[in-house]
Amino acid sequence: MKFSKATDYALHTMLFLTAATPDKPVGVQLLAEKQKVSPTYLSKILTKLVKAGMIESITGVNGGYRLKRNWEDISFLDIIHAIEGSASLFDCSFDHGPDCPIQRVVLEAEEKMEEHLRNKKMSDLVRETNIVF
Amino acid sequence: MKFSKATDYALHTMLFLTAATPDKPVGVQLLAEKQKVSPTYLSKILTKLVKAGMIESITGVNGGYRLKRNWEDISFLDIIHAIEGSASLFDCSFDHGPDCPIQRVVLEAEEKMEEHLRNKKMSDLVRETNIVF
DNA sequence: TTATTATAGATAAATAAAATCCTTAATTAG
DNA sequence: CTAATTAAGGATTTTATTTATCTATAATAA
After folding, report:
1. What is the mean pLDDT of residues B85-91?
2. Reduced to 3 states, what is the DSSP secondary structure of residue B38?
């Protein structure tokens, strides 16, 4: 069980956009170069963030991606869910009635993790840390 | 990102063994049947639990698997780590100096999840719940 | 109109998970 | 001692998922 590289790219891109000038769009070319990943692949990932309403895209010359208004509120969990989906991390495949005690425990644990990811915003990180890109 | 089915099988097998008579070994045949999984595959999973020292195996007629002495202390995390390994869920693949602020946050979150999984023992579950197999 | 930039569909390549097959080794009952 | 039973382990296959590429289309600004 691992977070996907796509999630890694998405988180780093969001951090970059949050730390960068908030009004000027940044092209996928540059974002991909920084992260040493192919632009087409990264663009597919960023399209998910667009669909989730976190960033917006501007086509054409001098286009790129830019944060949306609500960017101060975007949490780690928002980004992770946008990329990985929101399904739970564990499915009991054993048929013992309505609810599985094992599943319950694992889901409680998952909820602890999500709580932390929900409370951490990208903007916190930019405020707290000296971001090096 | 999902916990593997192997983890699901391992957790359910441990619950079964914990709920069952603690001295008499249970064959993989029966365990596999209950969970509707192939005996050979399950045996590979259980071998990992043996290597991790949670259960012991007895070959030969009337053999099978049985909990070891310390069974009261076996946590969810122990089992999960035995199957999935203990590597962290997130690797930053971007090269920004010694530590990545994103990685830090995700690892804190992971730690919250692990804490819960470390504090829940199989024996708790058997005590609390009316296990249905 | 041309260059630039994102979107999207199709597909390929790489990796990981799930499962099977077969052989070997250990043990116990008869 | 022998035959039956049971786990361990190596090799391989199947299936699923992730990662990545290629190509075409659409939008926009200079």
Report:
1. 95
2. coil
User: Is pTM beyond 0.90 here?
Assistant: yes
Alpha-carbon distance A29 to A79, whole Å? 21
Measured in angstroms, the CA of B79 and the nearest CA of chain A are apart by 12
Secondary structure (3-state) at A56: strand
User: What's A58's DSSP letter?
Assistant: E
- CB-defined contacts A:B, below 8 A: 121
Per residue in A56-71, pLDDT (tens digit) is 999 999 999 999 988 8
Q: Tens digit of pLDDT for each residue in B7-16?
A: 999 999 999 9
In this complex, the answer to whether residue B58 has its CB under 7 A from any atom of chain C, a nucleic strand, is yes
Q: What residues of B are in contact with residue A7 (Cβ under 8 Å)?
A: 1, 90
Which residue minimizes Cα–C1' distance to C5?
Answer: A60
Residue with tokens 């000038």: A21
Can you give the pLDDT at residue A132? 65
Residue A69 to residue B79: CA distance in whole angstroms: 44
Residue A67: strand pairing partners:
A55
Mean pLDDT estimate for chain B: 93
Residue with token string 């990992």:
B48
Question: How many other β-carbons are positioned within 10 Å of the β-carbon of residue B127?
Answer: 9
Integer CA distances (angstroms), B54 to B71, B78, B114, in order: 7, 9, 19
Q: Give me the helix-helix angle, B101-119 and A101-119, nearest 10°.
A: 150
Could you give the CA distance from residue B99 to residue A115 in angstroms, rounded to a whole number? 23
